[in-house]
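User: Please fill in residues for this 131-position structure.
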C-alpha cells in the first residue's frame, strides 16, 4: 500500500514538472530569425547550424559558432531536396535553397519546408530570364 502512495506522489510530481515546463515554453517569446543549416561556398564544406536574419532588407547568416556572414544583394537561384548523403548531415525532410550574392559568393541554406516561404522573402529569386 505504501508503494502505491509513493508511486502516485511520483506521478503527480512528474506531471507538475512537465506542465510547468510546457507553460514556460508557451509563454516564451518567439526566437527571431529562420533556423537552418548552411554551407559556404555552395556544394563544399560542412553544414553548420545557425539562423538567417533579414532586418531592414539586408539578409545575413549567423552560425551558432563563428562570425556572421552578410549576404549583400542575396538572390535565391534554386530550390531542391537533399541528396541521400546530405540527408545524413541535415534533416532529410528539409529543403535546400542555393543563393548567390553581389560579390560572387555562394551559399546553400537548408530549412524546413514551412520556413521556405519566409526565406525566399528574405532572399528573393534571381532573375533567370536574362540572356
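Assistant: Residues filled in for all 131 positions:
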Amino acid at each position: 500500500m505504501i508503494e502505491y502512495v509513493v508511486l502516485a506522489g511520483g506521478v503527480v510530481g512528474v506531471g507538475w514538472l512537465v506542465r510547468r515546463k510546457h507553460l514556460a515554453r508557451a509563454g516564451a517569446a518567439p526566437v527571431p530569425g529562420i533556423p537552418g543549416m548552411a554551407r559556404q561556398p555552395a556544394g563544399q564544406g560542412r553544414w553548420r547550424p545557425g539562423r538567417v536574419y533579414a532586418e531592414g532588407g539586408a539578409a545575413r547568416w549567423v552560425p551558432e559558432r563563428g562570425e556572421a556572414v552578410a549576404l549583400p544583394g542575396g538572390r535565391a537561384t534554386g530550390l531542391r531536396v537533399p541528396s541521400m548523403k546530405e540527408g545524413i548531415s541535415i534533416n532529410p525532410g528539409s529543403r535546400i535553397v542555393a543563393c548567390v550574392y553581389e560579390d560572387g559568393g555562394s551559399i546553400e541554406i537548408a530549412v524546413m519546408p514551412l520556413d521556405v516561404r519566409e526565406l525566399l522573402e528574405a532572399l528573393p529569386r534571381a532573375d533567370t530570364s536574362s540572356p
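For context: The longest strand covers residues 48-55.
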